[in-house]
């Protein structure tokens, strides 16, 4: 609910300040939910908001790219186009539904033989989802503009949490409303999408070294930015590094994109980290760092970097990843204004 209040609204509250950089506070950014309206306000509406459109899109692909993450791809209606900056997000309307039965309503061929074993192992196909009223969810887009009039999302299934060990089974907590709906969709289905939204965008003109750090489904906006900087803009005068962390090789995806970029662009470097030693990766000869992404960037790159404070950092992933990385960068003296991130739960 961030908004730029140019006149009115009073002074920014202490509870708002942690959400903004010093420059943003100076530029009159506020949290709309904390700004009391007692008179006329003058606000600045981003131009991007005026370009938001809604479409009925057609699902063209919905395959798993890891055990529990789908690459969900839709096509805009013929003749329609979305102007967006890589790193933006889209919204999808989730209709009310009585019941989505994972076993009956999820296409197991779309999950894939490679991944269905994990679903059976944890008895996830026994779950059901219910949604009594329509809602909307936001997901970062993994596609970049030159890929055409499509929207690509990476969506992790939000299952019911497991009971604490040694108990077996699931807690009495609802499954994810949106992810269950998206996982049930098949090519040819229609969905309501809107966009673009957001301001998690690269700085195209600073000339600084760019470092992306992500994990899990946080891959989406980082892929969009990196592919645009390389494939579209053909950036060769800036050092580009991407650090991506996953639990295992089978949980990492879009890897071929970045391996190809390394061959094509000498200034682009991809750093894969896996939580622990991975026999599959070892057998395939895949190069990786054993440990978490923040340790990878520390041990293999920034600890010997001459000026980490002169780089730009783009982060996307679970809250713990964002916190550990930002804490580490802060210890190096990196200005918060040089750290951009897209945080999700």
TrEMBL record:
<keyword id="KW-0813">Transport</keyword>
<keyword id="KW-0479">Metal-binding</keyword>
<keyword id="KW-0408">Iron</keyword>
<dbReference type="GO" id="GO:0016655">
    <property type="term" value="F:oxidoreductase activity, acting on NAD(P)H, quinone or similar compound as acceptor"/>
</dbReference>
<dbReference type="InterPro" id="IPR008333">
    <property type="entry name" value="Cbr1-like_FAD-bd_dom"/>
</dbReference>
<dbReference type="InterPro" id="IPR001709">
    <property type="entry name" value="Flavoprot_Pyr_Nucl_cyt_Rdtase"/>
</dbReference>
<dbReference type="InterPro" id="IPR001433">
    <property type="entry name" value="OxRdtase_FAD/NAD-bd"/>
</dbReference>
<dbReference type="GO" id="GO:0046872">
    <property type="term" value="F:metal ion binding"/>
</dbReference>
<feature type="domain" description="FAD-binding FR-type">
    <location>
        <begin position="52"/>
        <end position="203"/>
    </location>
</feature>
<keyword id="KW-0274">FAD</keyword>
<dbReference type="GO" id="GO:0016020">
    <property type="term" value="C:membrane"/>
</dbReference>
<dbReference type="Pfam" id="PF00970">
    <property type="entry name" value="FAD_binding_6"/>
</dbReference>
<dbReference type="GO" id="GO:0051537">
    <property type="term" value="F:2 iron, 2 sulfur cluster binding"/>
</dbReference>
<dbReference type="GO" id="GO:0006814">
    <property type="term" value="P:sodium ion transport"/>
</dbReference>
<dbReference type="InterPro" id="IPR017927">
    <property type="entry name" value="FAD-bd_FR_type"/>
</dbReference>
<dbReference type="InterPro" id="IPR017938">
    <property type="entry name" value="Riboflavin_synthase-like_b-brl"/>
</dbReference>
<dbReference type="InterPro" id="IPR039261">
    <property type="entry name" value="FNR_nucleotide-bd"/>
</dbReference>
<keyword id="KW-0285">Flavoprotein</keyword>
<dbReference type="Pfam" id="PF00175">
    <property type="entry name" value="NAD_binding_1"/>
</dbReference>
<dbReference type="InterPro" id="IPR012675">
    <property type="entry name" value="Beta-grasp_dom_sf"/>
</dbReference>
<dbReference type="InterPro" id="IPR010205">
    <property type="entry name" value="NqrF"/>
</dbReference>
<protein>
    <submittedName>
        <fullName>NADH:ubiquinone reductase (Na(+)-transporting) subunit F</fullName>
    </submittedName>
</protein>
<keyword id="KW-0001">2Fe-2S</keyword>
<keyword id="KW-0411">Iron-sulfur</keyword>
């Amino acid at each position: 609910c961030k908004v730029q209040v140019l006149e009115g609204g009073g002074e920014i509250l202490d509870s708002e300040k942690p959400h903004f950089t010093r420059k943003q506070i100076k530029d009159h950014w506020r949290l709309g939910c904390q700004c009391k309206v007692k008179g006329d306000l003058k606000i600045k509406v981003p131009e991007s908001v005026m370009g938001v459109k809604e479409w009925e899109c057609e699902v063209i692909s919905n395959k798993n790219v890891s055990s529990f993450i789908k690459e969900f791809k839709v096509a805009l209606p013929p003749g329609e186009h979305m102007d967006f900056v890589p790193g933006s997000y889209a919204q999808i309307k989730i209709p009310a539904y009585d019941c989505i039965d994972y076993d009956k309503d999820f296409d197991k061929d779309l999950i894939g033989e490679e991944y269905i074993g994990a679903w059976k192992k944890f008895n996830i196909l026994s779950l059901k989802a219910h949604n009594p009223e329509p809602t909307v969810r936001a997901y970062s887009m993994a596609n970049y503009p030159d890929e055409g009039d499509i929207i690509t999302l990476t969506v992790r299934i939000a299952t019911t949490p497991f009971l604490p060990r040694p108990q077996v089974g699931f807690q009495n907590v609802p499954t994810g409303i949106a992810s269950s709906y998206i996982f049930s969709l098949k090519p040819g289905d229609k969905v309501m999408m809107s966009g673009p939204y957001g301001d998690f965008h690269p700085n195209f003109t600073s000339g600084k070294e760019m470092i992306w750090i992500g994990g899990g489904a946080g891959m989406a906006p980082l892929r969009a930015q990196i592919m645009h900087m390389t494939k579209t803009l053909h950036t060769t005068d800036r050092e580009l590094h991407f650090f991506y962390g996953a639990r295992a090789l089978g949980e990492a995806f879009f890897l071929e994109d970045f391996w190809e970029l390394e061959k094509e662009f000498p200034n682009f470097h991809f750093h894969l980290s896996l939580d622990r030693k991975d026999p599959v990766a070892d057998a395939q000869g895949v190069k990786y760092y054993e440990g978490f992404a923040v340790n990878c960037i520390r041990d293999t790159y920034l600890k010997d970097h001459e000026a980490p404070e002169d780089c730009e950092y783009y982060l996307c992933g679970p809250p713990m990843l964002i916190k550990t990385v930002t804490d580490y960068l802060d210890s190096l003296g990196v200005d918060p204004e040089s750290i951009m991130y897209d945080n999700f739960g």
